Amino acid sequence: MDISKRQLQILQAIISDFINTGEPVGSRTLSKKYDMGVSPATIRNEMSDLEDMGYLTHPHTSAGRVPSDKAYRLYVDALMQKYDLPEEEKRIISSKLSDNMNELEKTIKKAASLLSEITNLTSFALTPKQDEDTLKYINILPVDAGSVVLMIVGGSGRVSNTAVKLNIPYTEEGLELLSKNLTYTFRGKTISEALKVDIIENLQNDMTAMSQLERNIMPNFLKTLENMLDVNLYMEGLTNIFSIPEFNDIDRAKTFMQMLDHKEYLTRTLINRDNGMIITIGGENSSNILPDCSLITATYEIDGKLVGKIGVIGPTRMKYAEVTSVIEYLTENLNNTFKLSGGEEKDG
Q: pTM for this one?
């Protein structure tokens, strides 16, 4: 059965009302609050048809109806109206993201925090897979007589610091020379390419003392590069669910928190999602994501190449228009931020 224009109007009103109030919606409420142009009895008959078509469900404890996953899908795909983000929220997002624009990790974490703060949902940000990130420079800094810090800076702005214990004496001049040699050898190479380089052969012309130093440092250098290939998942607003009526039930809230604890599964789920703005609702999600939750993800780019993901997870009763507008503006800012920082880094 095709859905009629009037049924679409009624369904849109029910979804909007339920999203805003969390209360099941009855025909009398629709008749009073919305200009339907028909009697409550007619609205009631249309609601009954909508229920038969799978767009509405009928809670046992209420005479009203609530939208189904199918209704939310139709709403997101065809009925949702564009939400214009207030200028003040835009200003806050732009200002706070620009504070850390030269450090990838801090900026991504701040983006997740802002998303949670504005939407009052649990947010997440996934750093890009780094295999295509290029190396900008390597620096080895003295700490004390027996240890140094190995700092690797990627072209994307990602910085990785690793403490290295040494079993031989070193000089600051020796560290500086090795730093320059490593930077010369690896600058401009992707992490994947760097891991394939025969390091010993590239540095074989160095003095014996340098070779001893490199033997202490190179295993840590390689391990750090391997770690830089990993993605990081940042999550914010984990306790926001306790202010959402759907999660007033302790068992339900506990199940939600347990699901978020499985970070490896969640990370894999996010990596495997398509690029762009993707909204999956309720039962559309895999079995390990709660069937009564919606997952919204969007992609952002680093210098037009590396792709990460940012988004929210929350109840299916979600302000989809507002949330997607916030995510769109955040990703737009991230893209512009890292396009700018990428350009500045190349010029330097």
A: 0.75
Instruction: Tell me how far apart the alpha carbons of residues 201 and 197 are, in angstroms, rounded to a whole number.
Output: 9
Provide the pairing of β-strand 293-302 with 147-154.
unpaired
Domain ranges of the chain: 5-79, 87-129+231-347, 133-229
Angle at 178 between CA 177 and CA 183, to 5 degrees: 100
* CA–CA separation, 231 and 285 (whole Å): 22
Q: What digits encode the pLDDT tens for the residues 225-270?
A: 777 767 788 999 988 988 888 888 888 888 888 888 888 788 888 8
pLDDT at 332 over 70: yes
Q: For the structural domain made of 5-79, what CATH number should be given?
A: 1.10.10.10
CA dihedral (67, 274, 224, 186) positive or negative = negative
Burial 89-104 (b: 16+ CB within 10 A, else e): ebeebeebbeebbebb
CATH number for the domain whose boundaries are 87-129+231-347 = 3.30.450.40
Phi, psi of 230 (to 5 degrees): -70, 150
Instruction: Name the helix (H) or strand (E) containing 158.
Output: none
Return the structure tokens found at 14.
């029910």
Q: Is the predicted pLDDT of residue 306 greater than 80, yes or no?
A: no
Which fold would CATH assign to domain 133-229? Enolase-like; domain 1 (3.30.390)
| Cα–Cα distance, 17 to 24 (Å, whole number) | 9
Tens digits of per-residue pLDDT, 7-37?
999 999 999 999 999 999 999 889 989 888 8
> Which residues of 303-345 form beta strands (DSSP E)?
306-315
